[in-house]
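Protein: Mitochondrial coenzyme A transporter SLC25A42 (Trinotate prediction)
Species: Henneguya salminicola
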Amino acid sequence: KNKKGISNMEFMFCGGIAGAIAKSITAPLDRIKIIIITNQKGGSYQQAKEIVRETVRTQGWQALWRGNSASLARIIPYSAGRFFLYENLKYIYHGDSESGLIPFTIASIVGLGSLAISYPFATVRCRMAVTGVERYNNIFDTFNKIYRQEGVKCFYRGFVPCLISIPPYSGLKFLVFELLKYQHKILYPNHPDPDVISRFLYGG
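Structure follows.
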């Protein structure tokens, strides 16, 4: 257990569940975004509403979550590993302090490792999001067809741009979160630990 008295398994479990819930809630928005990008359609609010109406009319409400199984297969180990490694490395190299650039560096490294492992699932999720069941039936069918028709390299198509963007994205996200928690302790010395709503706002 770390200094907070939380075991490694608890960190991984909580991180995985948090990632799964967040991804499932936002899955319809993610699919609409992917459809707009891949079809090169306008990104207006009206266009988004039209995509939702057409998707529901032709495929049903459940189609808004198409590809979410691939997202969950990616995000659960990604989030579990990220929170586990981040929290453990933070207390090894940073002690109890909640400020500084150490969170940025640690989160950047953890983000790169997690991305490399989970990226094939992101590719599968995008393929499923922009196609119907007549092309890719499920996550296993999608993996199999991509591998047979396009090879292993296709799973990492677009990986380099993501590789470049992850360190600042992941690093800044955790850095800002830690700085906000640190300021919370200063502003509210009688309640140094942020409540659930505060953590939600700081994380957002």
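Remarks: The helical segments are 8-39, 45-59, 68-93, 102-129, 139-150, 159-187, 196-203.
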